[in-house]
């Protein structure tokens, strides 16, 4: 376990302090032969069954400097000697993670939404955060929050397709450094902010409102 150096950016410190007062550390990823990609909770439970120790909950932190920071709910393994180790490989192939311990949160088989923050004045990133929140609330309403695999039919499938299409489009625009004044991905030739921006914000906000209420009432 490597304590995060004092020169870590104030943006990261401020973001993490809003989530948890736990320690922020760099951890090496030391996957086991049975470790599944991005499946931290079952991975750690199997590790405990074989080698003892404990499960620790917290948040995996990453950022695009000056643009965007994100926290994903995550679990790591604590050995009986007190060593903290991440045993879960990730899709990016990184061999270390920035981990924020959060002793006040646990896991009850329900999906947990990521925490995201725009670090810039780029409204595209606000829209990207909104569409990701819409995706979370739409795919986790009712019993879906306990399901690893979900199926959607008819109008629900159409809504999900719309969410994914805009999520991917906004990702591509942000990755190449665009802002809301860029050409709209729909191909109209108009600027995004003059074309689909208002519709996207209205639709995504409506999805969050409707299905967030459904989650709370289940």
From TrEMBL:
<protein>
    <submittedName>
        <fullName>SEC-C motif domain protein</fullName>
    </submittedName>
</protein>
<dbReference type="InterPro" id="IPR004027">
    <property type="entry name" value="SEC_C_motif"/>
</dbReference>
<dbReference type="Pfam" id="PF02810">
    <property type="entry name" value="SEC-C"/>
</dbReference>
């Amino acid at each position: 376990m490597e304590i995060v150096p004092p020169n870590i950016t104030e943006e990261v410190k401020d973001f993490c302090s809003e989530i948890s007062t736990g320690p922020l550390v760099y951890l090496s990823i030391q996957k086991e032969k049975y470790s599944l990609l991005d499946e931290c909770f079952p991975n750690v439970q199997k590790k405990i069954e074989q080698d003892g120790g404990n499960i620790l909950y917290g948040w995996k932190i990453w950022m695009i400097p000056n643009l965007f920071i994100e926290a994903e709910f995550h679990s790591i393994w604590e050995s009986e000697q007190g060593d903290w180790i991440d045993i879960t490989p990730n899709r990016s192939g990184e061999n270390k993670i920035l981990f924020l311990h959060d002793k006040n949160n646990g896991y009850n088989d329900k999906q947990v939404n990521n925490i995201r923050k725009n670090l810039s004045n780029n409204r595209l990133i606000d829209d990207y955060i909104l569409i990701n929140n819409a995706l979370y609330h739409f795919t986790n309403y009712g019993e879906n929050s306990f399901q690893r695999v979900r199926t959607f039919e008819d109008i629900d499938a159409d809504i999900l397709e719309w969410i994914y299409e805009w999520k991917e489009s906004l990702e591509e625009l942000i990755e190449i450094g665009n802002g809301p004044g860029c050409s709209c991905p729909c191909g109209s030739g108009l600027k995004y902010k003059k074309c689909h921006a208002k519709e996207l914000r209205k639709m995504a906000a409506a999805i969050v409102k409707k299905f967030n209420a459904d989650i709370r009432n289940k």
